[in-house]
Specification:
One of its GO terms (molecular function) is phosphatase activity. It holds the Pfam family HAD_2. Belongs to the HAD-like hydrolase superfamily. S-2-haloalkanoic acid dehalogenase family. Keywords: Hydrolase. This is Haloacid dehalogenase, type II. By secondary structure, this protein is α/β, with parallel strands linked by helices. The chain folds into 2 domains: about 5-15 and about 95-240, HAD superfamily/HAD-like (Rossmann fold), CATH 3.40.50; about 20-90, Putative phosphatase, domain 2 (DNA polymerase, domain 1). The chain is built from 11 helices and 8 strands. The chain has helices spanning about 20-30, 30-55, 60-75, 85-90, 100-110, 125-135, 160-170, 175-180, 190-200, 215-220, 230-245; strands spanning about 5-10, 15-20, 95-100, 115-120, 145-150, 185, 200-205, 225-230. The strands form 2 sheets. It has a 6-stranded parallel sheet, with helices on both faces. About 40% of the residues are buried.
């Protein structure tokens, strides 16, 4: 067994930070029901654009992807916003709140000297830094994260193998098999889990809805999550337990 410290890399948007305030901003213009529909479609196209860019071996920064996919979602609803209003909605990414289970999990982790925490995101360096440092609640844990690791340097998106190798290289210094041991990804996104497992990382899926694992692509690739939990607090406890067993 490796004597290296355990690494936990937390996905940011949708795992640590809730994007519900984005829907709140949209609701100021379109009402609650339509805002929820726009927000869901926006997220769908935001991810779809990254997958398509990967397939075409193209890259545009996540901020541009996010901005463009919002216009796509609005167009599909036959709605529009001024550039100023779009700017205010985009700025909501800088004031996202954490999920209720995050605070206790990170407080627990802050007392653990045998685990090193990172943030690992599709976002740009600037976008992730702003989101973490300006979040009303997550900013209090900024010193817990050794690094805010993004895909910007490798110019491709999750679940491309290069981004997970980049994570390991940043966290361990190399990407040999032994360097991947004890490196955990905690994410609420099934595609992220399957991608990380495909390159040999340990994976913990956050299933807040309690619906269970339904993504069948893992059966054709590397498998599903090693651990399924209901929140970040439980994720930390499970990884602590497994790293010491």
């Amino acid at each position: 067994m490796s004597n290296k410290k355990t690494i936990i890399a937390f996905d940011l948007y949708g795992t640590l930070l809730s994007t519900s305030s984005i829907a709140h901003e949209l609701a100021l213009h379109f009402g609650d029901e339509k805002a929820q529909s726009i927000a869901a479609l926006w997220r769908r196209y935001q991810l779809e654009y990254t997958f398509r860019m990967n397939s075409m071996s193209l890259y545009k920064p996540f901020l541009e992807i996010t901005h463009t996919s919002l216009y796509h979602a609005l167009s599909e609803h036959k709605l529009s916003l001024s550039e100023a209003d779009v700017g205010r909605i985009m700025n909501a990414y800088n004031s996202l709140t954490i999920f209720p289970d995050v605070s206790s999990g990170l407080e627990n982790l802050a007392k653990d000297t045998e685990i090193i925490a990172h943030v690992f995101s599709n976002g740009t360096n600037e976008m992730v830094s702003e989101s973490v440092n300006k979040s009303p609640q997550l900013s209090g844990f900024r010193q817990l994260f050794k690094e805010l690791i993004t895909v910007e340097e490798v110019e491709c998106y999750k679940p491309h193998p290069k981004v997970y190798e980049h994570l390991v290289r940043k966290a361990r210094g190399d990407v040999r098999r032994e360097d991947r041991e004890g490196v955990w990804l905690v994410s609420g996104n099934p595609f992220d889990i399957v991608g990380a497992r495909a390159v040999g990382l340990q994976t913990c899926w956050v299933d807040r809805m309690g619906d269970g694992w339904m993504d069948r692509l893992g059966e054709l690739a590397s498998g599903g999550p090693h651990v399924v939990v209901k929140g970040v607090d439980e994720a930390v406890r499970e990884i602590q337990r497994m790293s010491r067993s």
